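Q: Predict the bound structure with CA2.
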Amino acid sequence: MTSNPVTRVLVLNGPNLGRLGSREPEVYGSGNLSDLEALLVASVPSGVEIDLRQTNDEAELIDWLHEAVDSASPVVLNPAAFTHYSYGLRDAAALVTKAGLPLVEVHITNPHTRESFRHDSVISGVATGVIAGFGFDSYRLAVDHILRSAR
Ligand code: CA2
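A: Predicted complex:
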């Protein structure tokens, strides 16, 4: 539960998600990150900023989680392949939730229906919750939860 009204949600995306819309539409759908941003902006009340970012760089993603702590911003995180092995990202995600801020792990696909290496997440154990398998709606549901729980 966040105590202050939410004015900004950080929506952070890990490696290769910048390629959404141009590759593997049968797996990830045909929308790109601009489409995702537009969907989220349309789903939140005025006065709530959707700050959507993507990086292929693990260090940059960790820095953004530190920024979330310092600015008390709730986070929606699609860690992409880092989900499955990055203990550095896990430690940074734990800093967010230990600061009392929500961090919702999201996935476009349901990793449990895919290759076995995708079945384990090193992030889930420190996340507030996990939403997977609903395409871009996974993100919308995560933002909706963050805004409802902050009321
Ligand atoms: O389903 C998800 O959102 C994933 O986080 C996507 C990751 C994958 O490693 C996770 O297991 C599940 C992969 C993102 C790769 O993004 C691409 C986008 C377009 C084309 C190819 C890859």
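A: Residues 8-149 form a domain with the Rossmann fold fold (CATH 3.40.50.9100).
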